[in-house]
Amino acid sequence: MNKGISFFLRRLFFCSLSGFILSLAFPPFGFSQVAFIGFIPMLASARENRGDNFFFGIFTGLIFYSFSFFWLYKLAGFIYLLLALYLSIYWGIFLYTLYKLPPKGRIFLGAFIWFFLEIIVSNLITGFPWLLLGLSQWQEFFLLKTARLCGIYGISFLVILANLTFVNIFKKKYFYSSVVAILIFVAIFLITPEKFYKAKPVGEINVMVVQPNIISENNVEPEQVLYLLKEMTLSNLEKEGATLVVWPEGSFSDVLEKYPALVNDIKLLCNKYSLYILMGAFSTDDTNIYNSALLFGEDELQVYNKNHLAPYGEFILGGRYSFVRNVFEKVAGYTPYITPGNELKLFSLNGHKIAPLVCFENIFPDMTRELNIKGAQVFLVITNDSWFGKSAGPYQHFAHNVMRATESGKYFIQASLTGVSGVISPEGKIVETIESDGKRIFVPGTLSFKAPLKEGKTFYSRFGEVPLFLVGIFFIGMILCRTTKN
Length: 486
Known about the structure:
The chain is an alpha/beta fold.
């Protein structure tokens, strides 16, 4: 066989291996440790100053996302591979840039390149930080604690740093950089989480989460869903008690204002049992329709309209062009009609501040940061993940709560229509989930939890990615300047 073809095929194999190994590090598989070595086959097979590094980086990413996003096939068919391809371009940029820039300081240089690329992917167009590399460490508490300093992006930085350190130790290169990287990991392991953040307790709320196990695509009548939620709430209220009952997104799959009798019924329920009920439904201002979180209390209603809409599910990218709208409608058979809210909002409950997040808004670190700066004392996520089916999707979504809880230093509570529903502590530990026979999705149930309310801001909440961003700019600038001088 021609040497060139043989080398090409070997690189395809090593890149495929990297993509597959890395997919095992993410939920629901949970082999977090393999993320520290997953990039090694791809990196070891790369060569200096080769344009095809871009292709092989894309290929590795495509293998990874094809496996990790396979749950999207249920929603979009093989069109989901277009999303996988788009995200894989960043992997191509990473590998090409890493071996195109000067080799000095490559271990840290590569970690910073990845860090910057994740910032871009999280914000460009609408942003889609669903599978940032740091999410792979959602169960590794020795690394999770660093999220209070540098967020999920900082954890991604450390995972890439470990891969680059290992591969260059094997190649017997960059000895001093490798030693510094090892010392960083030793320091992280030794430092206790309490060193990063001390929160001030300000009380607690007795919360009941209700998971009705209603599948949206079955077109269950809105009134039936609401009836089931009420029945499950009342049947558990006396023995478990609650100040706040949380019903998921999709609790009412129509515009709630069209049913004044039902709205009044919910208010009467709150008055009779001295409850607050947080639920997900559509609402309107007579002009626009919103996907909303509504907090009912005794003689009051607070509304938060979802800010960050899901592309194609709730709005069409490029939808202002009639051609794009027409093509989408022919392919999908419908046209999204949801309007985004324009303000992140805190709800007031007995003088306390609770932060609502709707659907996948919990995957965006900046949203949580802004709410934390506003004074959020606990976060409540309401979502409808029934669309994902029995797949990795609900587990990947739930894992983001672990990252946000650690970054913010606050409790996160998620209520999902079909699961996963549960409570995460500020340390990133899953305190409790609704489950039956070991299953967390597509099972009905409730859980009650006295959620401690905390006041205070972590270092990450205050400064976000700015400190690591500035260090990265300084480091890359220094490397480039030294190389130019030489």
